[in-house]
């Protein structure tokens, strides 16, 4: 199906950015349950990322990575905002909520505009959407 590859690239980029975002701020908090929640979210992103990668390669497509400057700029901005906060855990939770919300919006838009997809791709895109929602629900308690 013609939109499978673009959808998989978007899934891959979203999960890659999620992993980078979590890695960037993970060491900025000492709250063990919160760190465990972030680790769990990162593991889920990695699973979805790896599946998108596998499906892209299965279709003969070259996976595309996030632009280095976008990644670096996001990381520096996040670190500065967390370090400037009196409550690093709450600030990280806020940043995670913002990132997950952006991810959900992007996922919903892609699902709506890309139309009919291979069932495996559709399932993976819905899994990402559900993951973003679960992450939002999980982060609320840390605000």
Your description of this structure?
This protein is mostly helical and 143 residues long. The protein has one domain (4-142): Ferritin, CATH 1.20.1260.10. The chain is built from five helices and no strands. It has helices at residues 4-25, 32-58, 68-83, 88-114, 119-139. It starts with a helix and ends with a helix. 32% of the residues are buried. The model has no long low-confidence stretch (mean pLDDT 94).
End-to-end Cα distance: 42 Å
Overall CATH architecture: Up-down Bundle
**CATH fold-level assignment:** Ferritin
Number of strands: 0
The CATH superfamily bears the name Ferritin, core subunit, four-helix bundle
CA radius of gyration = 15 Å
- Helix/strand structural class: mainly alpha
Outline the secondary-structure elements.
Blueprint: H1 4-25, H2 32-58, H3 68-83, H4 88-114, H5 119-139
Characteristic terms for this protein:
143 residues, mainly alpha, Ferritin, 5 helices
